[in-house]
Design the sequence.
């Protein structure tokens, strides 16, 4: 498997193209397959990666429906007849194949495990592919996704702890923004997680007494 990274200047976001290796990924027809994760743009660089390597684009996966991660969808659909996979059923007026928490989607040679991590957005998902976690904005190098409320922060942190940080072993974190990281580094050093825990301890607690 080959991983291609593309930085989208418009939204300062990361787009990933995963392609099968020629030796391992060639099927009986001689075709090579690829998927795209979070196309913040669709430009000549991405097109050249697909065409130069003779890839058949088999799927587009969206970690969450924020503009900096999906702006390339319409252009992709004009060029390729390809399915879009997301928690949302429609993104930028493009119908998707809905995926659910715990589901494993098989597209060509790729097995993509879906992990729902709401909080930054209601539809935030992490895609686990081999030794990599494509985390969107839910988890980045040193930070967690911004949320609109303390409730959203709590929901997101519970999901991160129970579904992502608890995964045995080490994985490469491929975030929606910023540099890659490792799961072990985020377990130990993520400032966003530490900040959340400190503020949680500082919150006052109340005892409810029934007067009678």
Sequence:
């Amino acid at each position: 498997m080959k991983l291609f990274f593309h930085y989208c200047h418009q939204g300062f976001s990361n787009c990933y193209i995963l392609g099968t290796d020629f030796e391992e990924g060639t099927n009986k027809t001689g075709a090579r397959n690829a998927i795209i994760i979070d196309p913040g743009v669709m430009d000549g660089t991405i097109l050249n990666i697909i065409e130069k390597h003779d890839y058949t684009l088999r799927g587009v996966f969206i970690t969450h429906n924020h503009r900096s991660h999906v702006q390339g969808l319409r252009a992709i659909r004009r060029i390729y007849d390809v399915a879009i996979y997301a928690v949302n059923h429609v993104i930028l007026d493009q119908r998707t194949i809905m995926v659910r928490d715990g589901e494993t989607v098989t597209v060509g040679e790729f097995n993509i495990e879906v992990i729902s991590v709401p909080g930054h957005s209601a539809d935030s998902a992490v895609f686990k592919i081999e030794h990599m976690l494509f985390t969107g904005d839910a988890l980045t190098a040193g930070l967690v996704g911004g949320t609109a409320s303390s409730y959203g922060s709590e929901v997101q942190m519970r999901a991160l702890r129970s579904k992502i940080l608890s995964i045995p072993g080490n994985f490469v974190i491929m975030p929606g923004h910023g540099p890659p990281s490792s799961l072990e580094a985020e377990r130990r050093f993520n400032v966003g997680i530490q900040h959340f825990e400190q503020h949680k301890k500082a919150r006052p607690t109340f005892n409810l007494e029934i007067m009678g």
